[in-house]
Write a structure and sequence with these properties.
- By secondary structure, this protein is mainly alpha-helical.
- Helices cover about 75% and strands about 0% of the residues.
- The longest helix is centred in the first third of the chain and has 63 residues.
- The radius of gyration is 33 Å and the shape is rod-shaped.
- The chain starts with 14 loop residues before the first helix and ends with a helix.
- About 15% of the residues are buried.
Length: about 180
Amino acid sequence: MVTVRRKKKRNLNSPAGFYKRLAAAGLAVLLLGLVAFGLIGRFRYADRLDDLGDFMAKAIRTDLNQALQSYDTIQRRGDDAAPDALANMKRYMYAAYRMNLSLVAARGERYSIIDTATYNSFQTIVGEYERLLANGQSTASVKTSLGNYTRAIADTLSSRFDSADLLLPQTASKKTGR
């Protein structure tokens, strides 16, 4: 009898096990790639949301500054320019208030610049001012209230934005004493 010796020992294992391990390793690499892709997308989305929040905050600041400039028109020109200036103030304050609602929905209550009570106070003061103008009565007391309100808005704007013109959360602005 002739026996032949093989140089390599015969593999008696089934190749199906090797293919299963290879498929599991491939799925693990694919899953890892998908997770990495998802995280990168999420970080990009968070950056875009931050940029949008900064844009909205700057738009609110611009609208409030325009409202303050409309008040300055009343101070310079008197009650003759008041109807147009009040209409402009109302329009800019409404735009700022609505944009603020969107900002709060996107970033949270800590980033609110003008809240509902502040906006309602503005509406009350302007309504009273318009009523007194329409009746031809003295607007001195209401003009004083509106002046105090606009100074409070100006103080809020100066304390809520940092030197890079970015909105600070309410807790951060209170901690820094701004």
